[in-house]
Amino acid sequence: MPSAIIIGSGIAGIATALHLRAAGVEVDVFENNDYPGGKLHAFEINGYRFDAGPSLFTMPQLITELFELFGEQPTDSFQYHRMKSVCNYFWEDGMRFTVDADREVFAKEAAAKFGIEAATILSYLKNGQKKYELTASLFIEKSLHKIGTYLSVDTLKALAHLSEMNLGTSLDALNEAAFGEPHLVQLFNRYATYNGSSPYLTPGIMSMIPHLELYLGAYYPKGGMHSITTSLYQLALRQGIQFHFSQKIEQILVEKNKAVGVKTASSQHFADCIVSNMDIFSTYKKLLPSQPHPERKLRQERSSSAVIFYWGIRGTFTQLDLHNIFFSSDYQQEFAHLFKHKTLFNDPTVYINISSKETPGDAPPGCENWFVMINAPGDYGQNWEALVVQARQNIISKLNRLLGTDIAELIMAEDVLTPPLIEQRTSSYRGALYGAASNSKLAAFLRHPNFSNKIKQLYFCGGSVHPGGGIPLCMHSAKITSKLIVSAL
Length: 489
Known about the structure:
Layout: E1 3-7, H1 11-22, E2 26-30, E3 42-45, E4 48-51, E5 57-58, H2 61-68, E6 80-82, E7 85-90, E8 96-100, H3 103-114, H4 118-140, H5 147-150, H6 153-160, H7 171-178, H8 182-189, H9 209-214, E9 218-221, H10 226-238, E10 242-244, E11 251-255, E12 258-263, E13 268-270, E14 273-276, H11 280-287, H12 295-298, E15 305-314, E16 323-326, H13 331-339, E17 350-353, E18 367-376, H14 384-403, E19 411-417, H15 419-426, H16 443-446, E20 458-460, H17 471-488
Parallel strand pairs: 1-2, 1-14, 2-10, 7-16, 14-20
Antiparallel strand pairs: 3-4, 5-9, 6-9, 7-8, 11-12, 12-13, 15-18, 15-19, 16-17, 17-18
Helix pairs in contact: 1-10, 1-17, 3-4, 4-6, 7-8
């Protein structure tokens, strides 16, 4: 039986292990931490449960199909439901708006709220859908780095519509031209943050992202986001996949330009192929120090990171839901601070996720668990202790203004996550949440492939390689990588 070693048990690592196991490959997963899931894990403070990382769930079929690979009924192990509303938005001028999950309803309500024709909004959304459907098979579902990807009817269709992809226009410019109304422009600009980029730099092709929420749907997994990890981990155990926790890989062993195994502090392990679910930068710099490095790819601008406060809140807020956004009054300056000045803006956009709205047991009775996140630059040696203190003050001040209350008095439990801690816990270079940023029209082509061009039987999966970060793209990464491996074994 062919064998594989996977370095890292992030969601892409677990999914790759499952795809390989279904193909008859013996799989061992080595994880530095004492838990699976990477960024997708959870913890508890004083009776408040928090999902530590990703909070948006789309394209659930990418999870459920893994159970189906082994003939299992997904609902026996993993349940979820579609959200009726996607997000509540708050602006400093008092404007508030809830995005309905039905795009027809959303378009009608947004038109009434912002003075825009509903047909204009629907046309924008349908154009985004068209971009997605034309490019998904090329940019998302297959390796961009294999010639066979380009020898297909789908590729010819995408190339025929290349002028409609808005690659030469920023997302902000596209949204300004489409709407003009500042609140609506800012609402659609926010989708750039779904891959850690700036709407003033990332190309207009990213207008396809709203399609994932407003047509394909936004969902909530029963038990919270961590249930994605726990259900897939339990599935992997049932299928005989071996996990080795608290096992730090020190080196990928290479012989005659072929990956043959891995080395820990105490032993060596060998397999027919090696898959790194570790950040691509850290993989090369830490695990392949003596091998040639793809320096151009490793020098790419990193995506944004985050500062996250986990607050146990006394009391409940009826005006808030699962997903809530409090916008900066100067969005352009916020992104200039993040990507140009490498610091936090004094009026940050604040995202609050409250899973206790869906799972009441995540907080004590009459209380809520607030996951409070602001976008942050990567770690470039800033004074994060001072930045966190200032960020906390700015966030509380903003929420006090927009919610009309004193948030500080309601915080009963607290923890904080910073870019240096993200790097420390997940090996994500500079604490970047999505690997490389997508602040150029060629960003998709510059991402590292899912395999090594120099070292045979060495593969990569996860958010720092093709096709990108976020749960859906990580799941696609796992599918691409496993197909490449199976075809080579």
